[in-house]
């Protein structure tokens, strides 16, 4: 069954809306990419207007910004420590925006959306 981002079939009260047309392809939703820790794997997705999105399926490298030295470094990710999106993502090492990861230089917070941007950017927090 396809994920749809169209108007729901039922109102908040539970009453049904009357159908006025079929589902359209531009209302189609997709499964989340759930970026994991591992060897780098990227998937290209076609979007509206023949644009492209690069989804990272797995990666073990992050672009880390150090606020003290104001410099960027590419560092290796060891594990996921926290994830405010879902507490079960931590044990599966799934990274989303806002998740805290352990790197070679210390803990960092992910600032990009890996499933949308195709890159893992992070800011050093300790």
Write the layout of secondary structure elements.
Elements: E1 3-4, E2 28-29, E3 35-37, E4 41-46, E5 52-59, E6 61-66, E7 71-82, E8 94-95, E9 100-103, E10 106-110, H1 114-117, E11 121-124
Parallel strand pairs: 3-5, 6-11
Antiparallel strand pairs: 1-2, 3-8, 4-5, 6-7, 7-9, 9-10, 10-11
How does this model look, in words?
- This protein has 126 residues and is mainly beta.
- It has a single domain (34-124), classed as Roll (Structural Genomics Hypothetical 15.5 Kd Protein In mrcA-pckA Intergenic Region, Chain A), CATH 3.10.290.70.
- The chain is 3% helix and 43% strand.
- The chain has one helix at residues 114-117; strands spanning 3-4, 28-29, 35-37, 41-46, 52-59, 61-66, 71-82, 94-95, 100-103, 106-110, 121-124.
- The strands form three sheets. It has a five-stranded mixed β-barrel with strand order 6-7-9-10-11.
- The radius of gyration is 18 Å and the shape is elongated.
- The chain starts with a strand and ends with a strand.
- The relative contact order is 0.18.
